[in-house]
Design goal:
Blueprint: E1 2-12, E2 15-21, E3 35-37, E4 43-49, E5 59-64, H1 66-98, H2 102-130, E6 137-143, E7 153-155, E8 163-165, E9 168-170, E10 175-177
Antiparallel strand pairs: 1-2, 1-5, 2-4, 3-4, 5-6, 7-10, 8-9
Helix pairs in contact: 1-2
């Protein structure tokens, strides 16, 4: 499970816009549609499903499945390499079948293998996006903002490590009764 934390900037129609620390991997991420990188700043706005019912100003934990991240990386990086190899390795026999020059056939079929692989990457990416497999979710509320919705309990769940909150440590799944001043 992949988690990160941030502060909710605004809420709209079941979505939470969360300000998080920008990671180096964000520069090459294909999911910039659900993130708004702020130029020159090491922070970004992430659009996440608000399943924990967080309010504006709340400090929350975001979740994205490690399995889904690995599947996305394999599709994005390994599939084009496979397309390149299949196109290059099949070019000799396909050149003979179509009566093409060996050199031209190698270039043509290698290029076609890469193009087909990228089309497949795009189709699989659209399908994963339609299923919202790539969309992060607000897993839990670490700390409510004072001006947020009133709440007696906040469920912290799903994290493999304890969460720090004001010097106190909370275990995953622990219900925390908040003191509201």
């Amino acid at each position: 499970m992949s988690t990160e934390s941030g502060r909710v900037q605004k809420i709209e129609n079941g979505w939470a816009w969360v300000m998080t620390e920008r990671k180096d991997a964000c520069d090459h991420c294909g999911q910039k549609a659900s993130c708004n990188m702020i130029e020159g700043i090491d922070r970004m706005l992430v659009k996440a499903t608000n399943s924990a019912k967080a309010g504006g100003g709340d400090y929350v934990e975001l979740f994205r499945s490690t399995k889904t991240k690995m599947k996305g990386m394999l599709i994005r990086y390994i599939l084009p390499v496979i397309g390149l190899l299949v196109g290059a390795l099949s070019s000799g026999s396909l050149s003979k079948v179509f009566g093409l020059n060996q050199g031209f056939g190698t270039v043509l079929f290698t290029f076609m293998g890469v193009v087909i692989a990228f089309v497949l990457v795009r189709v699989l990416g659209i399908r994963m996006d339609a299923r919202q497999e790539l969309t992060p979710a607000v897993l839990g509320i670490i700390r409510r903002a004072r001006n947020s919705f009133p709440s007696e309990k906040v469920k912290l769940s799903g994290s493999s490590s304890a969460l720090a909150n004001g010097g106190r440590r909370y275990s995953p799944g622990m219900l925390v009764k908040e003191n509201r001043h």
